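User: quick one, fold this
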Amino acid sequence: MRVNNVGAVALSISPITASMVSKDTMKCNPSSPFVSRSKFPSYRFDPINGKNSASHKPINAQTFFGNKKEFPPDETKITAEFYMISKTRFAINIYPFFQPLIETVKTIPSKTYDLSSKIWNCHLNDYETLIGKITRDHSHVRVTPIPKVVIKTLRQYKDSEKKNFEKDLSSIDPKLLEILMPFQRDGICFGIERGGRCMIADDMGLGKTIQALGIVHYYKDDWPLLIVTPSSVRYQWSEAIFNFLPSVPTQYIHHFTSGKDFIDDAKIVIVSYDLLGRAINTFERGNFPTIILDESHVVKSAKTARTKAVQKIVAQSRHVILLSGTPALSRPMELYSQISLIWPHFMGFHEYAVRYCAAVKGNFGWDYSGSSNLQELRIFLEVRCLLRRLKSDVLKQLPSKIRQVIMLDPLLIESGTKEMKQAIKNYEKKSIKGTDRHNALLQYYSESSRARLPAVRDYISNLLTSNKKFLIFAHHQCVLDSISELAEEKKIKYIRIDGKTTSEQRKALVDIFQERSEYLVAILSITAANAGVTLTAAQLVIFAELFWNPGILCQAEDRAHRIGQDGSVIIRYLIAKNTVDDHLWPMIQRKMGILNAAGLNQNISFSDVDVVNHEDTNQTRLDAFVVKSPPKSSTNATTSSSSELNDSKELQWVDDLEEYLEDEHSTKIDVTAKNVNEPDKNVPSKNEFHHLLETDDMDDIDLASIDLDNITSYSTKP
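Assistant:
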């Protein structure tokens, strides 16, 4: 280009010959100076000084590019995507914008325009009508329909909703029925209405276990019952059956612990996922019409051996109940294998993945790790088979404190070690008296802390994967250290407060736990952190060990249960059988006798993650949540609970403690977090053991700190 002497802009292309201009350039690039004449006939490529030169015709939009024309969008590039936004309404996302298609949507009587999302939506009754109009009037538009199984399921729900009848639950054990909260009763009805094939995905602490037991007991004519669970919680199931289904004989229950076990005559078999996989041939020969899969998210991958083993067993069953507090709704690929156990062949995996996993085909195959249409997926599954309630949904029905007993896996409790046997033997010597007897008790308590460590670590390891904040209390240094090491192994951020923590450090650590979401665990000494700290960021409190003084336990519970806590607090006591716990529970009950005398003596029992309601909801005694089980009647059933005193040795043990509590000359010492292996750091020395057991005067002080007029601060209120 150049500017001539009259100011006009002229275009000179004379040095360039036609042979230098490619055909593709001439056709495709109107912004290039090499422009096809056929495309733009109004411009002639003449010499610069010719009669039709640019000096005589100044360049403008009309002369250079020709007349501008409006072209309608190519219908083959228009997409109309349909998806559900509620149980009765679907939305239509049209892209790019295409007014004729919008006009078609406007002909539907139930159409509505959502200003916030800028999307049109209609009633489900008009779905086929709109699809028909689009395919007839805009045949080239690409339509992404809602899967047929979704439409069919939602219409069936609409029809069944009209019936609105309450299921007859009278065939379920009365003990279980009388303690159900309303939302738990609804959960049982949900499962029965779906033929005993459902997934209960309630939030932690809302009682998935008790709901599952209610459903399977309704179908007790379809037993044997198989309960598949992680190994760390399998003994909690037998405890739950003892407590909530007393009509079920204890000899019905069989814990499958070896591939050599004989299960043909068992009515209820409890097995871990790993052992099921190793003994799959044994279970394939069995007949289990009813199955509970606890923590079902462990079979989220269809490729694992445990998932394949479960699929083989479930294929033969009539009733399948899945339980999971983390149903992976944000990772739909992980949900497919679980839903397929309840509802086989509901949708092909690839179809499911394209619709809900945003499946993309790459150079190395399909990528199913994404997510799409999650709102529709949730609506669809909640109607068909999935029940999920959060604490916020049922908060008015929940007690402020939910106390639970967790029976640790007895196979992981090292109660048979040489040191443990020696500690028990030393105590049982009738010849020892006074200080020697108390030293023997101290040794027993210390060795019990070591014996429980593998079982405690196994239980905590599962919790660390939940991505939820929790507090964990322990007394011995070896237990605190082991939990800290486990958190580090799992790369979980935590805080730790024990007797070595200064007041300045304590304040900083509390602030970190309260304010920073990546810190999930607070590891706390029972005696050093039972007061003076507020940790309401957590709604779960774990006691890895017991302590002699119930007042201290209550104070520790209230680190999370205090002003600023918006929800219920779940408190779990980890109990290890064949350890000092067998004796501590009864002693704690006796030391709480003053509350019984005040008339606050209603018996309430808690087990596993089950919430138990009672007519009088003022739970004030720690003995109120001790699990009481029937006596042994089968080698396959869980042994009776530690809350029962069944022999003279146990009674003598408690008597010895009570006698020592009456020592008038006991003096107080500072009890802080110290080391079991170093008496000066965690466990009082032999001469100081009297303080660990507490004196009568100390008991009065501790119990006086509990305001009997406002006892509900330690209670469970709905």
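User: anything notable?
Assistant: The first strand starts at residue 2 and ends at 3.
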